[in-house]
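About this split. The held-out portion is used to measure sequence recovery: a designer receives only the structure tokens and must propose an amino acid at every position. Recovery is the fraction of positions where the proposal matches the reference. Here is one held-out target exactly as it appears in the evaluation file.
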């Protein structure tokens, strides 16, 4: 059966499917983390099945939202999505299965489930994902905290074209307790109306999502292979407006931004239908406490700057190059 093994800084996953097409999509998504099969059991062995889902228990419902409902019979959990897709996870065996009627939906759920489980393990090791653009320049690293849809991915593409820059992640770099950034490159997702002229067609893929509109996916390898880790030097709060420009940011607004993008992880794949489960609240509280301490450490150790990007990504990238060059 087609499969891939992944090693995300010690969080090992195995993804399998009878559909070679799905496995190829995920291989391209996680290319930076591909690993040879290991003898030990992975954290999660996830099997992706194309087709209708089987019958599942209807009770007791432990979580219900507009998009799904969850039934728990420890150690098994069933998640039934409103479009008919379903996931079944066995916590003690570290195995899961996802069913969906379309390749796009199966791809979407498999990708998000894998990231959610890996993120949970990384949190336990003090490796926390930040919703930000992570970059390196001159052996030092920077974080640009910016809300979803604010232009991180487009700016990442422009930075990759400038000598000296490497993109650690366009969306979720890792930050450690000693304020080191670690690379976490995944496929880049652009809106369907983005200008991707000049990018070879073979590096792009269409991607249709259930609730968030169509995207074009670009393989992370197109941006080059980044360094695995660099010390955090620049902390930037991204804003839209007339620019590009930089100015010092106050501690209050920096703390709010770190709270949203690091402590809460707004925009970080951490699916509630998999993470909110019986007996997991102590683990979630420990992760939140660790993230909060890390935010305070970054606040005290690094002066943040407000970065108003303006409307032209190329000019914003050039402005960032001048800024880091003048402050290094």
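Reference sequence for scoring:
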């Amino acid at each position: 059966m087609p499969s891939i093994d992944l090693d995300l800084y010690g969080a090992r996953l195995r993804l399998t499917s009878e559909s070679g097409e799905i496995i190829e999509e995920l291989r391209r998504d996680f290319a930076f983390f591909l690993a040879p099969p290991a003898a030990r059991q992975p954290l999660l062995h996830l099997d992706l099945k194309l087709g209708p889902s089987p019958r599942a228990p209807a009770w007791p419902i432990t979580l219900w939202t507009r998009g799904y409902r969850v039934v728990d019979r420890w150690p098994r959990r069933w998640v039934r999505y409103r479009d008919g897709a379903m996931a079944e996870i066995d916590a003690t065996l570290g195995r899961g299965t996802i069913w969906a009627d379309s390749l796009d939906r199966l791809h979407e759920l498999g990708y998000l489930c894998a990231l959610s489980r890996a993120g949970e393990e990384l949190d336990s090791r003090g490796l926390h994902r930040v919703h930000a653009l992570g970059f390196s320049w001159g052996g030092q690293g920077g974080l640009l905290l910016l809300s979803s849809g604010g232009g991180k991915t487009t700016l990442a593409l422009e930075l990759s074209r400038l000598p000296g820059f490497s993109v650690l992640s366009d969306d979720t770099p890792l930050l450690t307790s000693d304020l080191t950034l670690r690379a976490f490159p995944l496929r880049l997702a652009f809106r369907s109306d983005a200008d991707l002229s000049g990018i070879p067609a073979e590096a792009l893929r269409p991607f249709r999502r259930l609730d968030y509109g169509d995207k074009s996916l670009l393989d992370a390898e197109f941006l080059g292979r980044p360094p695995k880790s660099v010390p955090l030097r620049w902390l930037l709060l991204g804003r839209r407006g007339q620019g590009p420009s930089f100015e010092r940011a106050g501690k209050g607004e920096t703390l709010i931004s770190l709270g949203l993008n690091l402590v809460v992880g707004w925009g970080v794949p951490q699916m509630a239908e998999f993470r909110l489960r019986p007996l997991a609240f102590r683990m979630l509280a420990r992760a939140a406490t660790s993230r909060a301490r890390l935010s305070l450490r970054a606040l005290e150790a690094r002066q943040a700057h407000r970065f108003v990007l303006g409307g032209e990504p190329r000019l914003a990238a050039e402005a960032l190059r001048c800024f880091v060059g003048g402050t290094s």
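Annotator remark: Residues 137 and 163 are 9 Å apart (CA to CA).
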